[in-house]
Amino acid sequence: MHDIKLIRECPEIFDKALDKRGEGSKSSKIIALDTQRRKTIEKLEKLLAERKMLSKKFGAAEKNNDDTTISIRDDIKKMKHEIAWLETSLKDIEEDLEALLLSIPNLLSDDVPIGQSETDNVEVYRWGEIKSFNFQPKEHFEVGATKNDINFEAASKVTGSRFVFLSKSVALLHRALTQYMLNTNIIESELTEFWAPVLVNEQSMLGTGQLPKFREDSYHTNDGLWLIPTAEVPLTNIGKDKIYSIEELPIRMTAATQCFRSEAGSAGKDTTGMIRQHQFEKVEMVTFCKPEFENFELERMTDCAERILKNLLIPFRKILLCSGDIGFGSKKTYDLEVWLPGQNRYREISSCSICGDFQSRRINIRYKNDRESKPQFISTLNGSGLAVGRCLVAVIENNQQEDGSVEIPEVLRPYMFNFKKIDNNGNLN
To answer: What architecture does CATH give domain 4-102?
Structure first.
């Protein structure tokens, strides 16, 4: 949601900021609806005041048996119909204005590069050495150690495409990754763990910007609830209608949840493997902070995700997204992309974003510097720490051996009963 006062006062600046995203001018339509809204409110308030005065006048006339009661009653009745019409008109105008504001993406930070697509993203740096194999590395579902325990065919029969069954050592490795990510976030990165619902109401989806933009990419039930695309939705909405004290900020949260996406816009992409699934697990991070600290918190959040990859010894690169590739609700985003030997390319595993007050205006999350000060909207941030399924893919592909076995990263061994390897038959050794 955008600040209507800012748009009213600086329409050219607002349109120029939207132009960075390739959006057309929006301010004139917004201001026209806002002007109509304010004029309607003015008329309505005037009529309500007049009706109040007439009601008093009617009471006095009735008390004194005045002959004017009939005409006053007629005036009140006429005014009542006019007020009802104005109230309906106001509701329609406000709904149109809200729908327009909800459809407009976040304004970008000044340091976001201008570009059309992912090819214009800026690489910040790379970490880790890409392993040189003396054999042709395979994709995760082809490796001997895992191919029998990553079962797309069974899942397809049970549910449909883009679902998977994991079993035996692969299922354990997946669970180990989830636990390791959470423990790292809690112990090393000092985030607060939450267990969150995976079903939320429509207002929660609107609040974080999933709706109306991504309606076709989301799953919902027949009683009005929505399956979350990420724990960002419930975690951010924890702050709904709250006013935090300055002493409570920053608030840094993490949660592991199942996530659900219809991937409506991804037909034909990643049709094999676990890279793009309708259901997947992700460890999410959400931060509330004062606006002046949002850039610091973005770097900190991204470092939290990087720490996990570094400890797993998975090569990755950090990317600053350009204006043509950044998300709807984000004003600045870093992507972390891991190296996948089986695909011979980098693939996204984490996206960390500043949302500024874009979400907090929708959800009404504010803070006060002190008891006397006026409440202000906080800045929200969210990021993956990490996508578990994609991390599983990266661990398998980067640690595969020529004999089809997979070496278990040292930091995961305590979660894998201290075994060091999954052999070619899928057994722990």
So the answer is: Orthogonal Bundle (1.10)
